[in-house]
From TrEMBL, chains A, B:
This is Helix-turn-helix transcriptional regulator. It comes from Maribacter aquimaris. InterPro entries: ArsR-like_HTH, HTH_ArsR_DNA-bd_dom, HTH_MetalResp_TranReg, WH-like_DNA-bd_sf, WH_DNA-bd_sf. Keywords: DNA-binding, Transcription, Transcription regulation. The keyword Transcription regulation applies. The lineage of its organism: Bacteria, Pseudomonadati, Bacteroidota, Flavobacteriia, Flavobacteriales. Residues 8-106 form the HTH arsR-type domain.
Length: 109, 109
DNA sequence: TTAGTTCATTGCAATATTACAATTAAGTTC
DNA sequence: GAACTTAATTGTAATATTGCAATGAACTAA
């Protein structure tokens, strides 16, 4: 069906999955890496940098913005995108708490 | 098109995206959390625990297994699934390196 | 005002994902 | 063997995602 049954899961499980999902495309990973590298960015740069068409980049930026990981300020004809530091840190905290589990494997395998 | 153009991205970017993608569904997050909690598991438990149908759970387990995050041992009629510690640690390392970036935001916003 | 620039939006096609009923496969128990 | 249990596989339907051409919106420059 392509439709995730979010109502069966906890808020935290859904939150983790949403964050992970938006990171689950190499173009969005590349965009974020680039924004970290240059600390502030114009979308035109990204189209050249990444190699996908402008509408495609624009759409990926939209998804990142929707989750709050980046924010954009209009500046003349351009739009300046950058990492939303506070939301990034929050996302990082949620993901680290999930990822940084350790296990004994004493019962199995 | 639904088809990711992986060839435009680095191996690392694709690897990060693949790991993130498999974590991008709450059922798989829930499965992993459960495996961590009980340290060794039978799939039947998961169907009851999570509430999706058996084939759906089986399919999610398959994806987790494909990425190597879990492994399954046949044990009689049941299959014992558990976290693949080594691969989990590797995934964690890759993701932490990506997530744990800091930024100054001195140029923008 | 006209032309140019930059980015968002719309519309569409192709592929991917999610979910499950039905079935199969492989083992156990009697 | 027959009946039962557990989990994988197959087939199918519905929705989501990805990508881009075409277009639109907003600003700038001449």
């Amino acid at each position: 069906m392509g439709l995730t049954k979010t109502e069966m899961f906890t808020d935290l499980q859904n939150e983790i999955a949403l964050f992970a999902k938006v990171l689950g495309h190499p173009a969005r990973v590349a965009i974020l890496q680039h924004l970290f590298k240059i600390e502030g960015c114009i979308c035109g740069d990204l189209v050249d940098e990444i190699g996908l068409a402008q509408p495609t980049i624009s759409q990926h930026l939209k998804e990142l913005k929707l989750l709050g990981l980046i924010k954009g300020n209009v500046e003349g004809t351009s739009v300046c995108y950058c990492i939303d530091k506070e939301n990034w840190t929050n996302m990082k905290r949620v993901m680290l708490q999930f990822l940084d589990q350790d296990i004994d494997n004493k019962n199995c395998c």
